[in-house]
Amino acid sequence: MEIAGEKIFPIGLGTWHMGDDVDKRIQELTALQVGLAQTNSTEKIAIDTAEMYGEGNSEKLVGRALHTIARENVYLISKVYPWNASKRQLPRSLEESLKRLQTDYLDLYLLHWTGEFPLAETVSALQAAKKSGYIKNWGVSNFDVADMQELWQVPDGQNCVVNEVLYNLGSRGIEFDLLPWMKKQQVPLIAYSPIAQGDRLGNQFLSDDLLQRIASDHFVSVFQLLLAWAIRDEKTLAIPQSSNKDHVLANLAAAKIQLSHQEWQEIAARYPAPTKKQPLAVL
């Protein structure tokens, strides 16, 4: 998939909840390093973090992981709190994120969700950061259709290159209106929680006989099948989080899964697309 002309491997590395537990940091660091090592000459591996994650602990962990790979081979994403998204505070938050990440630029900087500051002010601050070279591009997260439409009316708002929202087989609400709007405007999707945090969001994917059968037929896990489903349009970046290096490798391998048209149809029949507007799902 592509974001603003950059070719990105369709499955990246999420880091929410990582970096907080001292006893897990070596395991988490290893998992990230193993994932980043899978980058190739044509597609960068994306790693997604935020100043919110552990109040900077995740960014510090990512910064350590970046030591093992050439910076230009990584697609680095971070996010700013809405209450830090003013013309005055955003540069400060960005500077602190860059320090924690031990890098001098971000490939992508996102407004984490809508806030009280006018979008015009936030966009102006993001544009200034881009002009300065501290970020290559910017986007948004947790924006619904109305939010995106408002953004498109703001000066330079159409320079937004991506929207990151919750999307998985059990949360298809964006397919009714948000995703069609984004595709029309050629705004790629970053899907967080693409495997619905296992079954912790109330789904029963692991015990679903249909998903089990299809996964078995392709010699993959149900989790890998869920990832393949999330990126099926080839315009989506999925960012599953894992602190286990073997799971990270399995996640990345899911990009190679190819289902038949009939198998896609069977899954769609079991988990149908929305037929009416739904509130934007947020975690």
TrEMBL record:
Ranges of residues in domain NADP-dependent oxidoreductase: 10-269
InterPro entries membership: AKR (IPR020471), NAD(P)_OxRdtase_dom_sf (IPR036812), NADP_OxRdtase_dom (IPR023210)
Pfam families: Aldo_ket_red
GO MF, one annotated term: oxidoreductase activity
PANTHER family registered for this protein in UniProt: ALDEHYDE REDUCTASE, OXIDOREDUCTASE, ALDO/KETO REDUCTASE FAMILY PROTEIN
Protein name: NADP-dependent oxidoreductase domain-containing protein
